[in-house]
C-alpha cells in the first residue's frame, strides 16, 4: 500500500499464509481475540471470499462442480481480491486492522505449483494493497496431511501440496515471519 509510512490512525494489514491444514484458521482467530483484547478494532477476512459472484465461481471450481482453464481461475482469484480492494482500503484507513487468511501469495503459490509462469502469476496482483506483515505457518506437507481434514476440494492432495510448499519457499523473503509447526 502506498501509505506504508503509517500514520497512527491506520489499521494494519496482516496476512497469514500456508498449506491447507497448516492451522491458519485457528491462528487467525487467536490473533483476532488477542488484538481485540488489546482494544484494537480488528476484523478477520479470508480469500477466496466465496460470498461474491466471483467467489461463487471460485467455490464451484474448488468443489469440483466446474472446470476452468488454469489461467482463468488464477485471474478469478485475483479479481476476487480486486473486488474487495476499496473496502479493504477504507477499513484500514478507518483504523481497523485486518487479519487475512490467504492473499496474493496463495494465488501465486498455488498457480505456479501447477506450472504456470511465476511472473505471469504475479502480474495481476500488482496494485493490490501490500501487507504490513506476512506470517507463514511452516508445516511439512506430510504433517499437514496427517492432521486430517482434507475436505475433498481441489488441491487438497499431498503430492500437490508438496509443490505448493516449494512455491512458497520461492516466494518467502526475510520480511516474512515464519512460524514453524
Ligand atoms: P481455503 O482452503 O483457504 O478456502 O482456500 N487459492 C487461494 C488459490 O489457488 N489462489 C488464491 O488466490 C487463493 C486465495 C488455496 C481454498 C484453496 O484456494 C487456493 C486453497
Ligand atoms: Mg482449504
From TrEMBL:
Residues 16-179 form the Thymidylate kinase-like domain. Pfam families: Thymidylate_kin. Its EC number is 2.7.4.9. Pathway: Pyrimidine metabolism; dTTP biosynthesis. The keyword Phosphoprotein does not apply. Keywords: ATP-binding, Kinase, Nucleotide biosynthesis, Nucleotide-binding, Transferase. The keyword 4Fe-4S does not apply. InterPro entries: P-loop_NTPase, Thymidylate_kin-like_dom, Thymidylate_kin_CS, Thymidylate_kinase. Belongs to the thymidylate kinase family. PANTHER family: THYMIDYLATE KINASE (PTHR10344). This is dTMP kinase. It comes from Penstemon davidsonii.
Amino acid at each position: 500500500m502506498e501509505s506504508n509510512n503509517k500514520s497512527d490512525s491506520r489499521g494494519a494489514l496482516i496476512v497469514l499464509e500456508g498449506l491447507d491444514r497448516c492451522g491458519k484458521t485457528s491462528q487467525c482467530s487467536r490473533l483476532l481475540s488477542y488484538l481485540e483484547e488489546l482494544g484494537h478494532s480488528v476484523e478477520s477476512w479470508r480469500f477466496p471470499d466465496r460470498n461474491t459472484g466471483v467467489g461463487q465461481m471460485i467455490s464451484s471450481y474448488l468443489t469440483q462442480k466446474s472446470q476452468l482453464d488454469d489461467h482463468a481461475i488464477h485471474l478469478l482469484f485475483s479479481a476476487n481480491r480486486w473486488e474487495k480492494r476499496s473496502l479493504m482500503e477504507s477499513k484500514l484507513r478507518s483504523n481497523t486492522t485486518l487479519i487475512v487468511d490467504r492473499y496474493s501469495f496463495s494465488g501465486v503459490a498455488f498457480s505456479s505449483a501447477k506450472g504456470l509462469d511465476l511472473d505471469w502469476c504475479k502480474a495481476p496482483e500488482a496494485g493490490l494493497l501490500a501487507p504490513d506483515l506476512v506470517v507463514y505457518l511452516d508445516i511439512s506437507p506430510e504433517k499437514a496431511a496427517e492432521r486430517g481434514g482434507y475436505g475433498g476440494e481441489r488441491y487438497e492432495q499431498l503430492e500437490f501440496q508438496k509443490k505448493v510448499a516449494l512455491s512458497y519457499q520461492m516466494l518467502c523473503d526475510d520480511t516474512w515471519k515464519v512460524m514453524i509447526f
